[in-house]
Amino acid sequence: MKIVPATESSIVQAARHLKKGELIGMPTETVYGIAVDALNVDAVRATFAAKGRPSENPLIVHVASVEQATSLVARFTPEAAALAIRFWPGPLTLVLKKNGVVPQEVTGGMDTVAVRMPAHATARRLIEVSGLALAAPSANTFMGLSPTTAQMISPGIGAHLAMILDGGPCEVGIESTVLDLSGERPVVLRQGHVSVRQLEEVLGRPVPDSGEGGRRSPGMYPRHYAPRAEVTVVDRLEPGQPGLVLNGPVGPSRFRMPGNAKEYARDLYKRLNDLDTLELERIYVEAPPRTDEWKAVWDRLTKASHRQTLPLPLHDEGVEGEGSDPPRHIL
Questions:
Q1: Are both 156 and 51 inside the same structural domain?
Q2: Is the pTM here over 0.70, yes or no?
Q3: C-alpha to C-alpha distances, 98 to 53, 59, 89, 113, nearest whole angstrom
Q4: In a domain, 327, yes or no
Q5: What gap in Å lies between CA 163 and CA 161, rounded to an integer?
């Protein structure tokens, strides 16, 4: 794979590749993505082919300004404008009604488009230099772990990329929050770094968290963000079990994770990838707290461990304003 430091000259080179319809590995603050010209249908189709991604699964379009986002949608609503002022550039994706400029291939055939302005300086500079809005799904095979460093991109994906811009480790480490603004009320389709509470503070009204977003957002499949090894979430790891812990001993196949939810999210994919390189059959994960700030982490663990039993925590810390302990999930 051609991994190069993200410098002004390499960004200019990457922009040339994008204008020719080629695929680029691009860092963002969330995860590394496969960047292509969002308005080039052939390039978009090549992205789906490289990932093995179903054509019905929409892509997020990355922009460098609100004006560029506005050029892709039927109407950049007042709520969208308020959220952009607060959270852009940053890890918030807005789903809005698209206009005729955006190809159906980008939106999975739907009348909406998902847009965001990344906070990573390399991503924004690449958009600016190329002059293109960039569709940039995570640089992984469909349903696999998203890479949070350039080196985590697999050779199989790298073979499809003209080059990979190395912008260092991702600061957020999980995919963006996705908020659907295309209907009568805003709905969170995917949890992320920007919380529901933060969204409600800006919008001044309740924002339901829906796990039933249909196809309007990436990441809606029951299994996603998963390593090759089977993931099992447990109350606590037994001696000798490989995986991720919040407390207890560590070793070559056991990593201690941060006790802060955002720092945990930042490290999650990297540590799962580290364990996956050991060719384990199973990875055990000590269940984190069930508080509101951990919802994005639980979303990723739930999808990574799909078809397994997720336990209740030993001591639920509760969520202000919520009811009793959540039920045990069979996924």
A1: yes
A2: yes
A3: 22, 13, 20, 5
A4: no
A5: 5
